[in-house]
Design brief:
heterodimer, A: alpha+beta, 5-stranded mixed sheet, B: alpha+beta, 4-stranded antiparallel sheet, 8 helices, 27% helix, globular
Chain lengths: 151, 251
């Protein structure tokens, strides 16, 4: 099967029902999607599939054959952060960082579909993402700043 | 035995899916993956073969000849603006990402476990008078959803349909505070031409049709990690009342 990950084509040989999360981490070698709860409840494995946020721990490889996958590496580089990454950096939206990839990708997708998202839309977009450090206040502020920057 | 020992069938049409499923023996169906994929990845589930339904053309909602038909592989997120009370039930399934992956067929085939409530769409669909078209042992058949659920698992759901007719609808639920809105108990109501249909999720592992005149009649409410049977017994009449108030409100 074929995956395009952050613009680079990969032929992958994993089992058709292996979760995309494990394919990315163990076959493609991209470890930014984290193997958190591995049952869809924590959000840190979230990646973009053709631009839409999806739980990579729940997606069988067969569901994404030929799809374009984006992980946080596709949002920017350490030297040149993407706008969502920069907003999280400036507003202290990350502490230990384990949940951050999921929050960044969910936020990036939110801004793509709703560039002027308000508070309730932001909360809905982040509802499936668990953070055990920040108490969410800083994260929501970072997302509001990212949304403001985009509009 | 590892995941690599599970043979995978990826049918590209509904007819191929029905043929590949056969009588369903030792076949696990995977559609959205939200329930089955973690079971397969962890090794808790090791069927001989698995049928991946995502490419079988079973996704989509159609309204024609007075019938609304929802394909088995239609994502739950496509129902958030469906007819009430289905829309209310769909809105509270999982979260944004999970709703986009989870399917109607999976929801109809799932049963709650002691610590994980599932199948939130079932009560709303029963209230709408939905029937299920399925394949498997004995061939293809259609039956009311409540009958299908009472028989348990083992069939390949192809679609769910109900009459495209005006109704008054109501919905009331109590959720455990959790990002995934774990449903303790939910009551769905729909009234059409004077006939009231009431159904509940959270009463038993799968949703049930309630007696509209006496909702608690004949019920043995489940007792699990979310709530005791005693609590649910107190809750059910209140939720019926609230669902009916919602229905009378002309929603």
């Amino acid at each position: 099967m074929k995956l395009t990950v952050n613009g680079i084509d990969h032929e992958v040989e994993s089992h058709a029902l292996r979760p995309l999360l494990h394919v990315l981490r163990e076959e493609v070698g991209i470890t930014s999607p984290k193997a958190g709860c591995q049952q869809g409840g924590c959000g840190t494995c979230t990646v973009l599939v053709d631009g839409e946020p999806r739980r990579s721990c729940l997606l069988p490889l067969a569901a994404v054959d030929g799809a374009a996958i984006t992980t946080v590496e596709g949002l920017g580089t350490p030297e040149q952060l993407g706008p969502v990454q920069a907003a999280f950096h400036e507003h202290y939206g990350s502490q230990c960082g384990y949940c951050t990839p999921g929050f960044l990708l969910a936020t990036h997708a939110l801004i793509g579909r709703s560039p002027k998202a308000g508070r309730s839309e932001i909360e809905e977009a982040l509802a499936g993402h668990v953070c055990r450090c920040t108490g969410y206040v800083k994260i929501v502020e970072a997302v509001e700043a990212a949304v403001g920057g985009a509009s | 035995m590892g995941l690599n020992d599970v043979s995978v069938l990826i049918p590209s049409s509904a007819a191929e899916a029905v043929e590949a499923f056969g009588d369903g023996k030792d076949v696990t169906v995977v559609a959205g993956g939200t329930i089955v994929v973690p079971e397969l990845a962890s090794g808790r589930l090791r069927p001989k073969s698995a049928l991946y339904l995502g490419r079988a053309g079973l996704s989509g909602i159609s309204r024609k000849d007075g019938t609304v038909t929802i394909g088995a592989a239609t994502p739950v997120s496509d129902l958030v603006d469906a007819d009430p009370p289905l829309a209310q039930a769909a809105t509270h399934v999982g979260d944004l990402e999970v709703r986009a992956q989870a399917t109607v067929g999976g929801n109809v085939c799932s049963a709650s476990t002691d610590d994980t409530p599932r199948g939130d769409l079932q009560a709303a669909l029963i209230a709408l008078g939905a029937s299920v078209r399925s394949a498997g042992k004995g061939g293809e058949r259609s039956e009311p959803l409540e009958t299908f659920l009472a028989e348990g698992a083992g069939r390949l759901v192809l679609d769910v349909s109900y009459d495209d007719a005006p109704r008054a609808a109501g919905y009331a639920a109590v959720w455990r505070p959790h990002t995934h809105h774990y449903t303790i108990l939910a009551v769905a109501a729909a009234k059409r031409d004077g006939e009231l249909r009431l159904a509940a999720t959270g009463v038993a592992p799968r949703a049930v049709l309630l007696d509209a005149d006496d909702p608690l009649a004949g019920l043995e409410l489940r007792d699990d990690a979310l709530a005791s049977a005693w609590y649910r017994t107190q809750l059910l009449p209140r939720l019926v009342e609230r669902a009916l108030t919602d229905l009378e409100g002309g929603s």
